[in-house]
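In this supplementary section we document a worked example of the pipeline. Step one takes a protein sequence of length 198 as its only input; no multiple sequence alignment statistics are reported here. Step two produces a three-dimensional model, which step three serialises into structure tokens for compact storage. The input and output of this example are shown verbatim.
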Amino acid sequence: MHALIVVAHPDPASLTHAIAAQVAQGVAASSPQHSFEIADLAAEAFDPRFTQADVALHLQTAAPSPDVAAEHARIDRADALALVYPVHWWSFPGLLKGWIDRVFTNGWAYDAGPDGKLVKKLERLQVHLIASGGADMRTYARHGYFGAMKTQIDHGIFGYCGARVATSELLVASDAGFPASHLDTAHAIGKRVFALPQ
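The serialised model returned by step three reads:
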């Protein structure tokens, strides 16, 4: 089994990168048959801008650009997808949102037919979301931010494509044992990525 771990943070020394590394180590520790790949969107200089070429792909009048086709191939090789990211304005950072916008395309992640019927094409994919935020959980709860994130991301993106969100974790700076506890949680998530029901 193979996991694709996508990390969206420009600083390789960030807690986000450390969390992604612990997810990877957990996957590796779970079984010698399990493998992982880390997709560092910032280091790879992924372009998040949605251009006319992306519009043409959405309308299915053009083939995917090489960078989008490469991301499709990476996800196609994976049995599980883990997204590790800091919360920016109560959602994904722009780099990761642009990756979703450009990669989870009509005709590949889903088919939106002219008759209005939706075909979900990523039902085989298991998704693990690991977000780190600076506000405390009371702030997220009081304003409904975490619920809104789950609606937008878990249901609105992955549910729309048929992918099953197996983990949706929000790690905040007010957690007991921060930051070491976040690394422990990430390692535990990695260890159970392929232990969860497929």
